[in-house]
Specification:
Layout lengths: L1 H24 L6 E5 L2 E4 L4 E9 L5 E9 L5 E8 L5 E5 L5 E7 L11 E10 L6 E4 L5 E4 L16 E5 L23 H24 L5
Parallel strand pairs: 2-11
Antiparallel strand pairs: 1-3, 3-8, 4-7, 4-9, 4-10, 5-8, 6-7, 9-11
């Protein structure tokens, strides 16, 4: 009898530990890059701007490394300007078809938890077609402000830019849609209530189960 109670108690404890681990671990890798706009239509030889934002999902971050790729036979980068989320920004677009942008805080103890603009890339359309600009997530990083430099990036959340280049393209999309945008919305209060309220409810249910089976620790 005692052995059965012990096994049941061990099973419930293991279940609770595993549940809480997977519940909270989904937020460990939740930061991502946001391309704005997501699609644009232009004519050949025209230029357009792509704003790159970072959404850290309210986690403290201290730096980011972004690698992007694009087809160099359709597009070329003419300039990269710094954003506002990090005080120190550097970039390299010397290799056709790819670009690298790095941002970091200006002191070891500084960090930010706000969403914001990493950089603005100016592209020029070279020939007609439908190229895409993508995040190279295998190399890109969004670094948490912790002792282990945890990479928070979630590759599944990064979006891409779809470009339509052609004489019949809709030129009304060629305006900069991000002219006055400085930050993205933060995660809401309701989401945080749900996030922490669910584990609390699990603890309550777990306590009721223990009481029902008259478990003692």
């Amino acid at each position: 009898m005692k052995k059965n109670i012990f096994l049941k108690r061990k099973f419930l404890l293991n279940f609770l530990i595993i549940f809480l681990f997977f519940y909270f671990s989904k937020d460990i890798f939740s930061a991502y890059f946001v391309f704005d706009p997501k699609d644009i239509s232009i004519s050949k030889n025209q230029t357009f701007q792509l704003q790159i934002n970072i959404n850290p999902e309210n986690q403290n971050i201290k730096s980011a490394d972004l690698y992007i790729s694009y087809p160099s036979d359709f597009l070329k980068i003419t300039s990269i300007s710094s954003g506002t989320i990090f005080p120190v920004i550097s970039s390299d677009y010397s290799n056709q078809g790819s670009a690298y942008i790095a941002g970091m805080m200006d002191s070891p103890n500084s960090y930010t938890s706000s969403s914001g603009k990493l950089a603005i890339i100016t592209f020029q359309a070279i020939k007609d077609g439908n190229p895409s600009v993508l995040v190279n997530c295998n190399s890109s990083k969004i670094i948490k402000a912790d002792m282990t430099n945890t990479n928070l990036i979630n590759c599944s959340l990064n979006n891409k830019l779809m470009v339509n280049i052609g004489s019949s393209a809709n030129l009304s999309n060629n305006n900069d849609p991000l002219e006055n945008v400085e930050e993205l919305p933060k995660t809401g209060v309701l989401e945080n209530i749900i996030r922490f309220g669910v584990p609390g409810a699990i603890f309550v249910v777990f306590g009721i189960i223990l009481k029902f089976f008259n478990f003692k620790f």
